[in-house]
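Batch manifest, entry 17 of 40.
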Amino acid sequence: MTSIFNQLPPSARAETTMDLLDLALEQGSLRTWARRLDLSDEALRTARFRRRLSPVIAGALAEELQQDPAKWIIVAALETERESACKTKMLERFTNSWPAAREARELGSLAGAVEGTQ
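Output type: structure tokens
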């Protein structure tokens, strides 16, 4: 059981491959991404239903989004593990040590705001 004293605040939660998929969906539909990655139409729908991307799909998607593929492959691999304190610790360590995804999301938000003002 996890102690309330060991929990991170909501803003500091570990990133998941669903965050990566959400970032991709800001730029295109599931079908668009499936075709861009040369996947079947069902591959990304199934991943979204299961709430996780495979390490290979996460890496390919990250590369297309100009993110660090190694980071997302590690996150995806850790997501396949059973819940444990060790898994939580590793997810937090890796996602917090690579701020690239947060920076890309912030840049995307800024670009959207600039486009909206033009």
